[in-house]
Write a structure and sequence with these properties.
Helices cover 11% and strands 17% of the residues. It has a four-stranded mixed beta sheet, with no helix packed on it.
Length: 145
């Protein structure tokens, strides 16, 4: 299906009890998320809206959206190790699709509005920064193995 016109990637640090936006994405950031900056962050506590590239003539062609927490903070004047430490500890990510946008009419088909997510790949590592072969719950007496 067509790519949404706007979406928000959110994180939780407390198993989903509270969520904070990490990155806003939109075809028109000012219209979709008024008040959210469009400049890349210059501190670790800021977020911003990334303007999605134009869809092109074929709205139904697969569109890829990539999110890298470290990449969005590349202009923050801090050591890479500090950035990794500040961004670790996520217990969840979610994608909130907020605006469908324009859906072109296909010949012989009724117009339907829907969101579609074809594929989602999430990569990560244990809080021990990759020094274990498996993760154990936080309340475990043996935190890395």
């Amino acid at each position: 299906g067509p790519r949404p016109d706007s979406l928000v990637i959110e994180k939780t640090l407390d198993q989903g009890r509270s969520w904070q936006p990490v990155l806003y994405l939109a075809s028109d950031c000012q219209d979709s998320f008024p008040g959210v900056p469009t400049a890349t962050p210059h501190s670790m506590d800021q977020t911003y809206c990334y303007t999605l590239p134009p869809v092109g003539p074929n709205h139904y062609r697969d569109q890829k959206i990539q999110f890298s927490p470290l990449r969005q903070y590349s202009f923050v004047p801090a050591p890479e190790s500090e950035k990794i430490e500040n961004l670790s500890g996520l217990t969840g990510l979610r994608v909130r699709l907020t605006d469908l946008g324009k859906v072109p009419r296909l010949p012989g088909r009724a117009l339907s509005h829907f969101y579609a997510l074809k594929e989602m790949k999430v990569m990560g590592s244990c809080m021990c920064h990759g020094h274990a072969n498996r993760c154990l719950p936080v309340n475990s007496s043996n935190s890395a193995q």
